[in-house]
Amino acid sequence: MGDRLGADVAAIESRIAEVSGDGPARGAPGTPGDPRSVAAFQALLGTLPAGGSAAPANAPAPLPPAFLERLIAGASAATGDDPALIKAVIANESGFDPAATSPVGAQGLMQLMPGTAADMGVTDAYDPAQNIAGGARYLARLLQRFHGDVPLALAAYNAGPEAGARGEFPAETQNYVRSVLASYARYRAT
Known about the structure:
Blueprint: H1 2-19, H2 38-45, H3 65-79, H4 83-94, H5 114-119, H6 128-145, H7 150-159, H8 161-166, H9 171-189
């Protein structure tokens, strides 16, 4: 059991390094991102269905909380974003659902629009590791653009950076910012 846990941790760390640009290319043989091995990756995470067959590649399994925390910690370390802020964005954007898709086409945990995902180097927005890494990079970019103003960066994350530059936000965005800030305060306290 201890050897398997050690191998699981090493594989997850490898996947975080891969997504953050510090590891092997996605799909390299023998890596967790190897597209030939969806079942192996699901088994690594302990999410194989009871029958032993892998779920379809487009139907991600629920994320174990410890795995999600590791992805957030890795993205935080890579970008300098507060992990509690990343978690608050995920909670409000997707409710921690890696398969979430909005009516306007935002995808995955951090609800990346396809253009934003591409700009952040995300090739599969439904891959939790890629999505969180890309979403954290985007959030860091907005925080830098708006000089560390968290509410303004969050508003721009929701309504777009140009709306942030103009300071024009609809009521929906204002509510979003309040909700994320409330989640952020809760996560920082725990």
